């Protein structure tokens, strides 16, 4: 079941992990908060995101990087090839159902910012469906003089005639929310409008919303997210909205939502205490909040009359101890009344974990990871027991994702299947009714002839077996000469799965490069314990795992340090930043995107305070002792010989502050190290605001790597 209701407000983006991978918004941080410099931090002035002097510094380094990397015909050819892939009309237009229509948001060469459009399922089945445009974002941006970037739509149920549109200026997390009528295809005159902020908003009914936003002084947490949620009725000002819940300043965020399944409507309020702990409350008819008594580190999801609980730690309840990583289910009303008859739908093993689950009116679908390979299992209640069966047809190395079409009302689903070398397929079916119907298949965007996928294991420093995927030519000569790109993330319980990435294929594999994905600790490949093994003082295990994979590639003579490059973004940028400072001898080139690097100040910049549950608290001297060991900004040495590195970020990243990358480059250049830097003016944490920018930044990265690793 999607966890976005409870944790999307805090989780770090995945876009920087898979493909391309701030200014300080007035409602998030006041300028004076970043004014007091840390002792010895000579480059803290670069944290002034839109200051004249820092932007001049950015402009100079952008010019140097583009001057070196973009002048060749090879760069132009690659940039055009990648843009053609991203803009291709042959891509699958993914859809979501709202009422009688299926909606899609689409960008291509003619629609830079994008079209929001819709069709019917029968029409969608056709090779070239007829689409009805609902909103042209390019036309809207031109008419309003704004660089709008699409951030999604939340529909009013069950009528589906209204929605709340979220639009971002330049791709930042902060959005403007506006009520939109999908029948007239116009914004509602006098409708709900919320100014730019990191808002959490949900429909309660046609004339009221749950709103968590910047209500003024004292209404935000130290992480820059809302700490108060209110119920806002149509016809009154936002200032007059009724308080529903107020969290603590040190929390990450709060919010509220209403489940809309007919006959099972309920109001819920959540309080994210840390990144990994939260409380969920049911709101009764009198407005009183009743806490759901589950472990604070569990992910709790109501669905119709049931309550699902995903455990991150062992839980002893009703005389039974359920293990971390298990999925439990119980009737919600009975649980609220004190009953503790929980059933375990999934039990983890050492190499098997739960990637996710989906609930429909009659079924539960488990998405299991078995040694980092997806498998789907169907559960149905029969005669008081859960009957389990496997959904067949998954390739050996594949990424599977099943999403209900309308989880509240039907058992219909969409299924996507892909592999490193297998283009994505989208199918539609009904649970319990045989094989799904293939709706769309993506074309092959790169030549995979002669390529093969294999899975290997490296042994980390403490003896832990760490799996990794390798994509290379089947006849690869093991002489240590292959240009090899090693990718990793290792944080926030995010697994890296074997999915199709056409830009990697076109820019790297097709040219003869080897691509490797490391499933290191800190990720979610083997459940919460795999993640927790690399938290805080144990962060070094993630880095030791990555080093072990790199050394195994050298041992197997796939490559050697001069030909081994690494790439990571966000938390993955922190990973490769540490590889740069810990093992510079092991790598020939580094691409470090939208990274965290200054771990002494990360919690004081933008959303950084929300990640202290992952990394620790630098203001605590005992914790700073171990945090310092993985703070690349504090471990650069003038006498060291570092592999050449390209740092990239975005001025509009209001999640991970661009000051991290800026300061690291300034420090390294001041010590005489040869590094490159490119900062996109737009894009938010994803690094780019449109396909053209994405293609350009990808071309920069792959051109740099190919040149350095020859």
List keywords for this structure.
single chain, 710 residues, alpha+beta, Rossmann fold, 20% helix, globular, disordered N terminus
The CA-CA distance between the termini, in Å, is 45 Å
What is the CA-based Rg, rounded?
25 Å
- How large is the count of helical segments? 15
Using the 3D structure, state the CATH architecture of the domain at 453-708. 3-Layer(aba) Sandwich
Report the helical percentage: 10-25%
Strand content: 25-35%
Q: Tell me the total number of β-strands.
A: 39
**Corresponding CATH superfamily of the domain at 453-708:** Alpha/Beta hydrolase fold, catalytic domain
CATH class of the domain at 453-708: Alpha Beta
- Tell the overall outline: globular
Query: Which topology of the domain at 453-708 does CATH recognise?
Result: Rossmann fold
Cross-sheet strand order for the largest sheet: 32-33-35-34-36-37-38-39
User: What structural class should be given to the helix and strand makeup?
Assistant: alpha+beta
Low-confidence stretches: 1-36
Overall mean pLDDT stands at 92
User: Mind summarizing the main beta sheet?
Assistant: 8 strands, mixed
Notes on the protein architecture:
- There is one protein chain.
- The protein has 710 residues and is an alpha+beta fold.
- Among the domains are: 294-347; 453-708, Alpha/Beta hydrolase fold, catalytic domain (Rossmann fold, 3-Layer(aba) Sandwich).
- The strands form nine sheets. It has an eight-stranded mixed beta sheet with strand order 32-33-35-34-36-37-38-39, with helices on both faces. Strands 5, 6, 7, 8 and 9 form a five-stranded antiparallel beta sheet that branches.
- Helix 4 runs antiparallel to helix 8 (502-509) and helix 4 crosses helix 15.
- The chain is globular and about 65 Å long.
- Mean pLDDT is 92; it is low at 1-36.
């Amino acid at each position: 079941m999607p966890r976005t209701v409870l944790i999307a407000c805090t989780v770090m983006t995945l876009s920087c992990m898979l493909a391309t991978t701030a200014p300080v918004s007035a409602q998030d941080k006041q300028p004076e908060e970043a004014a007091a410099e840390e002792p010895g931090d000579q480059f803290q002035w670069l944290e002034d995101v839109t200051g004249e002097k820092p932007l001049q510094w950015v402009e100079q380094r952008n010019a140097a990087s583009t001057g070196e990397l973009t002048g060749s015909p090879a760069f132009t050819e690659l940039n055009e090839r990648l843009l053609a892939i991203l803009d291709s009309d042959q891509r699958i237009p993914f859809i979501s159902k709202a009422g009688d229509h299926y909606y899609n948001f689409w960008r291509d060469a003619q629609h830079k910012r994008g079209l929001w459009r819709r069709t019917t399922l029968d029409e969608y089945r056709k090779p070239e469906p007829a689409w009805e445009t609902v909103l042209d974002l390019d036309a809207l941006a031109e008419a309003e003089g704004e660089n709008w970037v699409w951030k999604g739509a939340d529909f009013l149920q069950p009528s589906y005639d209204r929605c709340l549109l979220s639009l971002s200026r330049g791709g930042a997390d902060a959005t403007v929310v506006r009520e939109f009528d999908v029948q007239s295809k116009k914004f509602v005159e006098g409708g709900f409008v919320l100014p730019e902020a990191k808002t959490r908003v949900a429909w309660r009914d046609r004339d009221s919303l749950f709103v968590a936003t910047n209500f003024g002084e004292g209404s935000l947490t130290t992480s820059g997210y809302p700490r108060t949620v209110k119920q806002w009725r149509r016809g009154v000002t936002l200032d007059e909205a009724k308080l529903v819940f107020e969290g603590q300043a040190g929390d990450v965020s709060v919010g509220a939502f209403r489940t809309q399944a007919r006959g099972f409507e309920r109001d819920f309020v959540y309080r994210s205490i840390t990144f990994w702990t939260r409380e969920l409350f049911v709101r009764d008819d009198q407005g009183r909040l009743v806490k759901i008594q589950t472990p604070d580190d569990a992910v709790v999801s109501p669905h119709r009359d049931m309550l699902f609980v995903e455990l991150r730690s062992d839980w002893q309840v009703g005389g039974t101890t359920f293990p971390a990583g298990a999925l439990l289910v119980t009737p919600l009303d009975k649980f609220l009344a004190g009953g503790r008859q929980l059933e375990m739908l999934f039990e983890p093993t050492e190499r098997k974990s739960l990637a996710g689950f989906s609930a429909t009116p009659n079924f539960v679908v488990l998405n299991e990871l078995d040694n980092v390979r997806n498998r789907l299992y169907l559960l149905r209640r029969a005669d008081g027991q859960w009957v389990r069966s496997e959904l067949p047809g998954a390739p050996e190395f594949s990424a599977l994702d099943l999403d209900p079409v309308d989880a509240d009302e039907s058992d219909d689903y969409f299924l996507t299947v892909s592999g490193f070398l297998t283009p994505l397929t989208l199918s539609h079916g009904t649970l319990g009714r045989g094989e799904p119907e293939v709706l769309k298949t993506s074309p092959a965007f790169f030549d995979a002839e002669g390529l093969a996928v294999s899975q290997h294991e490296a042994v980390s420093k403490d003896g832990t077996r760490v799996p990794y995927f390798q994509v290379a030519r089947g006849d690869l000569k093991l002489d240590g000469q292959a240009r090899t790109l090693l990718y990793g993330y290792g944080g926030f319980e995010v697994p890296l799965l074997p999915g199709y990435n056409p830009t990697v294929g076109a820019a790297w594999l097709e040219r003869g490069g080897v691509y490797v994905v490391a499933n290191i600790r800190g990720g979610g490949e083997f459940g919460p314990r795999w993640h927790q093994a690399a938290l805080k003082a144990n962060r070094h295990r993630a880095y030791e795992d990555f080093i072990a994979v790199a050394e195994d590639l050298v041992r197997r003579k796939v490559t050697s340090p001069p030909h081994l490059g690494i790439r990571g973004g966000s938390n993955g940028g922190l990973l490769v930043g540490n590889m740069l400072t810990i093992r510079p001898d092991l790598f020939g080139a580094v691409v470090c995107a939208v990274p965290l690097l200054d771990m002494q100040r990360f919690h004081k910049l933008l959303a950084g305070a929300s990640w202290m549950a992952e990394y620790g608290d630098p203001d605590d001297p005992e914790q700073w002792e171990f945090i310092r060991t993985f703070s690349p900004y504090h471990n650069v040495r003038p006498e060291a010989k570092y592999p050449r590195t390209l740092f990239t970020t975005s001025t509009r990243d209001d999640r991970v502050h661009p000051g991290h990358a800026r300061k690291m480059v300034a420090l390294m250049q001041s010590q005489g190290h040869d590094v490159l830097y490119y900062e996109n003016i737009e894009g938010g944490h994803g690094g780019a605001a449109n396909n053209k920018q994405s293609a350009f930044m990808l071309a920069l990265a792959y051109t740099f790597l190919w040149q350095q690793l020859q």
